[in-house]
Amino acid sequence: MKIMIVDDELPARERLHSLLEDMDEYQVVAAASNGVQAVRLAQELEPDIILMDIRMPGMDGLEAARHIAGMDTPPAVIFVTAYEEHAFEAFETHAVGYLLKPVRRERLQEALEQAGRPNRAQLGALHEPATQSGAARSHICARVRGNLELIPVDSVHYFQADQKYVTVRHDGGEVLIEEPLKALEEEFAGSFLRIHRNALVAKARFCGMEKNSQGGFEVVLKGSRERLEVSRRHVAEVRRFLKSL
């Protein structure tokens, strides 16, 4: 079975690799030092099992596991961490194991064997959306031509809903996702502001608000010629926000 190791500390990656060297049935095919690398390598190499640290800079292991769960055939994830308090969140991501550092060979072997024989509940979980934790994601995950694409949230200009899809306009272009705008508003309340029933704009992208030729209002975005309509019910809130800048 193909194994990928994800940990931001080289000694931790090396220790797991050394433990796996004595297990002939497992092959380490990749190592990553953060969540973003983990998602990209998981798509490219399609490992059977990922040994994942939780606390890592940038995208942590919990968020990476949620994105990986969106793959057509996601690998089994075993979290390897020094922090026991993350156990509940870990299993919300459909992880099949949870090991505390320092990892003992016997416990690792046991967890790998369990991951290699997923039970009915685990198989069913692969086809369910992962539960979101209270923490806002650092990246938005979109499926583009069959692959998962990660968009840093701080590069997003706005979210705009159109029927069942939401357009994510970002520095590199735009993608479509299938997430409710209301859920995005709740998750990113600190960094995005609703300007219309169908649009959330990044607070960092606001440049101003102007009247258009029809007498309505439009938001002016920094570094862009785009103008987004502001509904009448949100004009006062947008004006208050702009005055606070």
Set down the secondary structure blueprint:
Blueprint (H helix, E strand, L loop, with lengths): L1 E5 L3 H12 L5 E6 L2 H11 L3 E4 L8 H8 L7 E6 L5 H6 L4 E4 L4 H11 L4 H6 L13 E6 L2 E6 L3 E7 L2 E6 L2 E5 L3 H7 L4 E5 L2 E4 L3 E6 L5 E5 L5 E4 L1 H13 L1
Parallel strand pairs: 1-2, 1-3, 3-4, 4-5
Antiparallel strand pairs: 6-7, 8-9, 8-12, 9-10, 11-12, 13-14, 14-15
How does this model look, in words?
It is a single chain. The protein is of the alpha/beta class. It has 2 domains: 2-125, Rossmann fold (3-Layer(aba) Sandwich), CATH 3.40.50; 139-244, LytTr DNA-binding domain (OB fold (Dihydrolipoamide Acetyltransferase, E2P), Beta Barrel). Helix content is 30%, strand content 32%. It has helices spanning 10-21, 35-45, 61-68, 87-92, 105-115, 120-125, 181-187, 232-244, and strands at 2-6, 27-32, 49-52, 76-81, 97-100, 139-144, 147-152, 156-162, 165-170, 173-177, 192-196, 199-202, 206-211, 217-221, 227-230. The strands form 4 sheets. A 5-stranded parallel β-sheet has the order 2-1-3-4-5, sandwiched between helices. Strands 10-9-8-12-11 form a 5-stranded antiparallel β-sheet. Strand 13 and strand 14 form a beta hairpin. Helix 2 packs parallel to helix 3. The longest helix is centred in the last third of the chain and has 13 residues, at 232-244.
